[in-house]
Write a structure and sequence with these properties.
The chain is mainly alpha-helical. It is 71% helix and 0% strand. It has 5 helices and no strands.
Length: 96
């Protein structure tokens, strides 16, 4: 847990961008609980919709059609956090 806290703290690269990078990797790995967790953490750090969408575009370019499907899941999680509705169940994966 300390390693994760250290990795995502504010330093030369703002934390929200590190969390968006982790979300992009979670999309590539197709892990819904991780996507949900990193989307929530990025939202909590104040990521804008424009920043979020740019990282989704990066994730999609790395996975092709599958990337689009999983990026849409991440976008649904984002909309859920913005509106206060939980979309993805994070049970069954690593603890964030």
């Amino acid at each position: 847990m300390r390693m994760r806290e250290e990795a995502y703290r504010e330093k030369a690269v703002p934390a929200k961008y590190k969390l968006l990078a982790a979300m992009s990797i979670s999309i590539a790995l197709r892990c819904e609980p991780c996507i949900e967790a990193y989307v929530k953490m990025a939202c909590d750090k104040g990521v804008s919709q424009e920043e979020f969408i740019e990282f989704l575009e990066v994730a999609m370019t790395m996975q092709g059609c599958l990337g689009e499907e999983w990026a849409l899941k991440a976008y649904e999680a984002y909309k859920g956090h913005v509106t206060g509705q939980k979309v993805i169940d994070t049970a069954g994966c690593c603890s964030h």
